[in-house]
Write a structure and sequence with these properties.
Layout (H helix, E strand, L loop, with lengths): L3 H13 L4 E8 L9 H16 L2 H12 L3 E8 L2 H4 L5 H17 L4 E8 L6 H16 L3 E9 L3 E3 H17 L11 E5 L20 E7 L2 H14 L5 H30 L3 E5 L13 H6 L10 H19 L17 H9 L4 H7 L7 E7 L4 H18 L3 E8 L7 E3 L6 E3 L18 E2 L9
Helix pairs in contact: 2-5, 3-9, 5-6, 6-7, 7-14, 8-9, 9-11
Amino acid sequence: MLTDQEIISTLEMLENEHLDLRTVTLGINLLDCAGHDLAKVQKRIHTRITHFAEKLVPVCDLIGEKYGIPVVNKRIAVSPIAVVGAALSSSQLVAIAQTLDAVAAEVNVDFIGGFSALVEKGVARGDHALIEALPQALTATERVCASINVASTRAGINMDAVLMMGKTIKQAAELTADRDGIACAKLCVFANIPPDIPFMAGAYLGIGEADAVINVGVSGPGVVKKAIDRALKTDPNLDLGQISELIKKTAYKVTRVGELIGREVADNLKIPFGVVDLSLAPTPHVGDSVGEIFQSLGLVSIGVPGTTAALALLNDAIKKGGAFASSRVGGLSGAFIPVSEDLNIAEAARQGYIGLDKLEAITSVCSVGLDMVAIPGDTTAENIAAIIADEMAIGVINNKTTAARLIPVPGKGAGDSAHFGGLLGQSTILPVNCGDRENRFVRHGGLIPAPIHSLKN
């Protein structure tokens, strides 16, 4: 039971601390839309998505207004298009992406994810066509997001796919050079991708999920920061164990709010409720930053010594509080560290407190990985692939989800600024060691075998 003071603090979260439901994501199974005839596949996709999603935005707005808690983003995630469109060519898959974009605009959602392929063990015909289509598909659309899973603890790392993604990212950046390579901001490369992520750009509906499902992503980095600030103002001598307990209780309250709204949206749409993703997802606004939490904990900035330990404490406390609040926890659940999307982290990058090496190190304990990281435009495809491979190795060996969302900004170098606009924010471009030199390691290709601890049976 919540005490009177805890209820009052929850109301304070709503009023002054940027508490919102960051996303309601409707997962839609498109597997029965597959076929050889492009026009028929497009028609089936349009019919199926509009059937399930036509009321999504009005219902989210109505329930958000009822509780005074805005649902900031309404999104759709679909079955991996590499499977749905396995019989189609790459040019036809670009047309499928445009269909997804058009229907997303029609039902007024912010993004639609699932232009995706799962290639951790090998690249099938449909996977190859989709990866080939990615640069043009992401350039020709506004709302379509893509994710490619190239590694898993069970399978190892598909280095052929990793190198393909290095080349694909370069091509996507060049096609949107006039917008600082923004196509790459809609593309994530994963290890151990969960099948129920509500956050973009990784969201897709996994094989084995229901025909339709509602997954929600709660956030509230500002809420966590304010809770820590209040507690330390009252008692500056709190130890880290006590601070962890405080974060855990705050995560509990935030999760309960998120699940309440998510379940009511699901009931109204007559669609099963899936999971609550507990991730702290920042925005480029003051007071809504994950980076500011590190300062509240006593660090000068994210990136200085102590950052990895502080992030480990934060992630663990959030997961414990959320797991106590809900039995339906899924997705990623933890703290996102997207450089350009978090004003404080972007500033830390500008001042030199955090760079690519430290970002990679802290992904061993955060929920995602190298997220929204702008790098010099002359970074070679092989070096981009090598950065991805390093990130995948962290996920595979630690049996956790990691991802890379890298943006090689055409015509710009380390220290320059990249501007992506809106939720995607802006960032200083980080240097890459030997960014313009040859990297022969990734050219060997093949499969980096799964680690010994994958043999669990």
